Amino acid sequence: MRNFIYVFVLLFCFACGDDDNVTPNTDPDSTALFSDIDIVTGLQLRDENASLIGTVGNPNIKNEDSSIYPNPANSVVTISSPINTIETVWILPGNQTTDFGDVDFQSKVGAIMYDQTQLDESQVGTFGLNGPQINLNLQDFDNGYYRIFYHMTDGELRWDNFYLNKDLSGSELSDKVFEDWN
């Protein structure tokens, strides 16, 4: 029995050892890699009527019954949800990446959690609004990729990605996005 206790104590000590030498998680199935708040892994391209016209990359989004359009945009984006009311919107600068192309984000979104403090600390724009369709004027934002998070009246937090370029319009804007992702 005494040997069992020594073995148990020895194992316990090793388990509680120095955590400075922990190997980082590089498992592509882990949410720790692609749940960073600023990563943009793809876009759903939508026209000014919210119709889906294509996808680039592998979008890391949770938009369910809502949509962001037009995407890409050159001055204004609209968030629309026919089922829920949008209460608060946070816009964060995004970092485009072509990594995670094989990740099934739809199966992972339940494990990805963002909190309001994280959004407040990272945001470049926040809007306290209330409605099923909201137009956001982005004239004061820099050109680039963004993550947009929005809290709904059903208590859910949703997110999407968009690209803004105030210097381009029409096919030039779409061409720029396709160029970035190829």
Q: What is the SS-derived class? A: alpha+beta
Q: Helical residue percent?
A: 10-25%
The pLDDT mean sits at 77
CATH class: Mainly Beta
The arrangement of helices and strands along the chain is HHEEEEEEEHHEEEEH
Question: For the largest beta sheet, what order do the strands appear in spatially?
Answer: 8-6-10-11
Named CATH architecture? Sandwich
- Return the CATH topology: Immunoglobulin-like
| Count of alpha/pi helices | 5
Number of strands: 11
Strand-residue proportion: 25-35%
Overall geometric form: globular
Task: From the structure above, extract its key features.
182 residues, alpha+beta, Immunoglobulin-like, four-stranded antiparallel β-sheet, three-stranded antiparallel β-sheet, 23% helix, globular, disordered N terminus
Write a structural description:
There is one protein chain. With 182 residues, the protein is of the alpha+beta class. It has a single domain, classed as Immunoglobulin-like (Sandwich), CATH 2.60.40. The chain is 23% helix and 33% strand. The protein is built from five helices and eleven strands; from the N terminus they run ααβββββββααββββα. It has helices at 2-15, 31-34, 105-108, 116-122, 170-181; strands at 39-40, 42-46, 52-57, 67-69, 76-80, 86-93, 95-96, 125-131, 133-137, 144-152, 157-164. It has a four-stranded antiparallel β-sheet with strand order 8-6-10-11, covered by helices on one side. A hairpin with a 5-residue loop joins strand 2 (42-46) and strand 3 (52-57). The longest helix has 14 residues, at 2-15. The N and C termini lie far apart (65 Å).
